[in-house]
Amino acid sequence: MSKLATLQVLRGLAAITVVVDHAILRQAEWSQTSETVMRAAEYSGALAVAVFFVISGFIMLHTSACNYGAPGAVRGFLVKRLWRIVPLYWIATSLELALRLRAGSEVTLDRVLASYLFIPYPVAQGEYMRPLLGVGWTLNYEMFFYLLFAASLALPIRRGLPLLFAALVSIVAFGAIFIAPLTDVSAPHTILSFLSEPIILLFPAGMLVALLLKAGWFPIVPGALAIILLLLGENLLGFSLFVDRMPAPFVWWAATWIVCAIAVGLSVAAREPQRPTPILKSGVWLGDVSYALYLFHFFSIVAAEKVWWSLFGVAHSQIAFVAFASATSIAAAGVIHVAVEQPIMRLSRGRNVASGPIHQTALASFMRSFGGS
């Protein structure tokens, strides 16, 4: 079992949180649902995305620290990331496009191109920036971060990494000064406001977790899963204070983002059992299929909804529907992972662009370059 198995479990928990969130919101369209439950679902889904971003920042530095300044580092990094992200996303986007065209929806060419190229796109005046595949908005941030990270790899780590941190902080500062203050938590409506949102600071937060972990700031603890659940529970306590305030104030988001970063750090520092338990193995598997689950779960929820209506109508248990839709989404993601995602990864390995296993030596060489232990 990988040393970062618990991190995979956290990734899987975040993915299933998004699924449950969307299942609740979908069910609320045809069945009476408490406003508080709907707000809690929205906030928990947003916090799961925060966990994804922190993990992404951590993994990028953890796997690529030793590549700073190396010949071909920029190209190699981008090729690996594109193979990992683009094929499955384009498949999901193409499915969404086909379904919209079949339903007779008006789809403009510029929005289609923006969706495939990870360019933030305003759906309509004053509305959210969303690609055709709604959940793809997070990948717009991911690709933006990857471009900045790749650029930093062209320099020695002593210069590249500080410049990367400075660039991300400066982008947010620019947005806060010239576009909208940090206290304005309304949704961005332009490309510039979208890319300068404070949420991009979660990527450097993940990189900071990697540095603090190497410096020994996160204790190696047993029972990390229980701690992670406790930390996520603290986020749920926050709902009692802010869940009926839509949107929640920035101070709440900042505090819960810090909690998400701590959860990632503890999961990485976890002492795993010598003999992995079935629960741990299941959690790791859920983490393995999390990308497919994230991209395709809404299709599965809609399909589950049609089956549910044919069997029970709209008056049956809301909790039961959410559980059914979530289980359907996980099962479908497992199939997609095996039938589509894994062959793509094998193809990338055949082209010598696989990311390879995660090694602590990457961060070790980074810390040595700064005179660390």
Written description of the protein model:
The chain is an all-alpha fold and 373 residues long. The protein has 14 helices and no strands.
Comma- or semicolon-separated keywords:
14 helices; 0% strand; 373 residues; mainly alpha; globular
For the CA atoms, what is the radius of gyration? Answer: 21 Å
- By secondary-structure content and strand pairing, the structural class works out as mainly alpha
The SSE string, one letter per element, is HHHHHHHHHHHHHH
Shape: globular
Number of strands: 0
Portion of residues in beta strands equals under 5%
Oligomer: single chain
Query: Quick one: biggest sheet?
Result: none
- List unreliable stretches of 5+ residues: 354-360
The mean pLDDT is 87
Please work out how many helical segments DSSP would assign: 14
Helix coverage percent: 55-70%
- Could you tell me how far the N terminus lies from the C terminus, measured between alpha carbons in angstroms? 26 Å
